[in-house]
Amino acid sequence: MRDMLPLLKNTDFPAIKRARMHTLQVNLGYLCNQTCFHCHVNAGPNRKELMDETNINLLIQLMELSGVKTLDLTGGAPEMNPHFKKLVLAARKLKINVIDRCNLTILNEDGYEWLADFLAENQVEVAASLPCYLEDNVDAQRGDGVFQSSIEGIKKLNALGYGMDDSKLTLNLVYNPQGISLPPSQEALENAYKKELLARYDIHFNELFTITNQPIARFGSTLVTKGQFDEYMQILKDNFQQANVKGVMCRTLISIDWQGYVYDCDFNQMLGLHAPIEDEEKLHIAQLIAQEELQQTLDYGLAGQPITVMNHCYACTAGQGSSCGGTLG
Ligand code: SF4
Ligand code: SF4
C-alpha cells in the first residue's frame, strides 16, 4: 500500500492537531470472510494478520489507564479474531461503549452462531456496511450473495431488538458510494433506506452513516488502474469545506494496528503513516502504558500533538465531511 504514498504526498491539506481523545479504534486483523471492492484494508479470507493475546492484554490495560469512552473495533471482520470476546467483555466491564464494525454476513457463517446473542447481551453497538438497498448494487461492490446474507444478518439483529424503537441496542448502517462521487445527503439517503428496507424486507435500523471513499488501498489502486485517480482527487479538493477540518475524527481518536502500533486514523494505518507522537518513529501501546509522561499525555487526549496529513485527508473534508460516524458537523 505504500506505493500510493507518492500520489498522496506534497499536500496542501491544512495542518491539524489533536484535541482530547475519547475513542480507541482498534484493527483486530485483516482476516475477513469477504473481499469487497472498496475495502481500504485489502482484507480477505487468506489474510493471516491478527492481533495476538499479548496485545489484547495491553489494550485492556490501556483502556483502564486512559479513561477512553469508546472502543471501536474494525478489521477485517473483527469478530474473526479469536480474542474478540475477551476484549469486548473487558471493555464492557469498564463501562466503555463498544462499536463492532460488522459486515453482517459474518453473522451467517458457520462457527459464528454465538455472535448475534453475544453482541446483544453485551449491548455492543453494531455499525454495518450496506452500500445500497438494491441487491445488484451491493453484490457488485461486495460480492455475489452478500446482499441477501446481509438482510438475513439484519433480521437476526432485529429479532434481538437491534434497531427497534424502545430498544437500547443500536444498529447503524454505513453507506459508501460505488464510484468516483461524493455521497449524497445523509439525511435524505437515510430516509430512503428506511422506507425501502422496511417496505421490501421489513427490516429496521437506527441511523445511516454516509462515508466518502478514501483514495487508498484497493479502491485507490483501482482508480489508478482505470486512470481516474487524478479526477477523483480533484473532486475531493474542489469540494473541500474548511468547516469540516475541526471535526475530522483523527482529532479525538487513536488507531491501533493488529501489532499494537499507534496511528492517527485507520486510513493512515493502512498507508503505514505512524502517528508523529513524541518524535517516535513507531509508537507501540506498550510504550503508552509504560511511560508515566505519556500516560499523563494520554489523559489529556494527546492534545496539541500534530497529525500526519496527506492528500487522502481531503476525503474527510469534502462536501458534508466524512468519518466513521458519518458526516461531520
Ligand atoms: S467486509 Fe469490510 S473488511 Fe471485509 S473485505 Fe469488505 S470492506 Fe473489507
Ligand atoms: S485521513 Fe481523515 S482522519 Fe485520517 S488523518 Fe487525514 S483527516 Fe484525519
Give the SSE map:
Layout: H1 5-8, E1 23-27, H2 53-66, E2 70-74, H3 84-93, E3 97-102, H4 115-121, E4 125-129, H5 135-142, H6 146-159, E5 171-175, H7 186-201, E6 208-210, H8 217-226, H9 229-238, E7 253-256, E8 262-263, H10 266-271, H11 285-290, H12 292-299, H13 314-317
Parallel strand pairs: 1-2, 1-7, 2-3, 3-4, 4-5, 5-6
Antiparallel strand pairs: 7-8
Helix pairs in contact: 2-3
Bound molecules: iron/sulfur cluster (2 copies).
Describe what is shown at a glance.
The protein is an alpha/beta fold and 329 residues long. The chain contains 13 helices and 8 strands. Bound molecules: iron/sulfur cluster (2 copies).
Descriptive account of the structure:
It is a single chain. This protein has 329 residues and is an alpha/beta fold. It has one domain: Aldolase class I (TIM Barrel, Alpha-Beta Barrel), CATH 3.20.20.70. 36% of the residues lie in helices and 11% in strands. The longest helix has 16 residues, at 186-201. It starts with a helix and ends in a 12-residue tail after the last helix. The model has no long low-confidence stretch (mean pLDDT 91). Bound molecules: iron/sulfur cluster (2 copies).
